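Batch job 17 of 40 flagged for manual review because the log was empty.
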Amino acid sequence: MPDKIRISVSHNKGTRLFAISQRRKKLVILSLVLGVSSFALSGFGLHYFYQQQEVAKIAIAELQNKNNELNQLIVDNNNSNHELTQQLEAKENELLVISQRVDDVESVLGLQEISEEDSSLAEKTLEQRLDVAAIDSAVRATMFRLIPNDTPLHYTRESSSFGRRTNPISGKRQRHLGIDLTCKRGTEIYAPADGVVELARSSNKGYGNLLKVQHSFGFMTMYAHLQKFKVRSGQFVKKGELIATCGNSGNSTGPHLHYEVRFLGRVLNPRSFMDWTPEKFDSLFEKERSVKWTPLVDVINNVVKLQLKLTQKPTVEQVEAINTAKAEDESSQQLTQ
């Protein structure tokens, strides 16, 4: 066997001979073997990583499916929580009505629910129920001060009215206990009448940040999905005072105010009170006939008369009677000394 490998290369200038020794021959063969092995290993590695990538893709797809299922469960649970929260609020209001002894208060003021026997009351004219013309300006001013009226904020539109509606979250038909007013986040909300803050509760569920204000003669207003409170529980507020700002807390699809008006726990249409103005003084009495306004106006009239008596100057006879009483008191003191 020759010790060398001879390679001849021919070109235009002649032929050149190259000689490769046996040692170099082994190195060349070894290099070729190593190259082929490296290529094979690289191919195997690439195939292995490709298979692992496919397995990872399948695992990711399964995780995404599970994530979608969990998200759907969360949505379903949120809808259920929203319904349960509303039911809980309704039960709390029922308990509040019971605790306030509604029947006793209504029997005193003559403010019972309309029964079938006197359902014909709805057909009577306003003059038969309440003599609006006889109500003087002082009584009217007092009513607008103490009973909720006008709009509590500057809103964009009425997104949901009072009564039956399709719930935007659950998609079910149910009774809407108030009115939804869309507004920009942070829009200021003002008290529609004098009152005292009964509740200022922070929450990220149901009604969200919730505020309740008790007004005179059994009226109450409620404000839900608020951003911030500007008052605290137990604080007295005046009509037109800043009480909160509009937000999107709780179960809400966008910034809005859920506004309710109640009388002795019973929900009334807030629109009737929002439209009640001095120019439309009789509108509230025509729309909210479940409230017997006549005895309520009589109570307010008596309060106004008492205020007028307290602010009037005493008559000559009253001054003389006071002086006589003082003189008799001084005489009795001197006799005892």
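Reviewer: the log was empty due to a logging misconfiguration, but the result itself is present. Helices lie at 22-99, 102-109, 126-129, 137-146, 270-274, 283-287, 293-311, 316-336. Unflagging and moving on to job 18.
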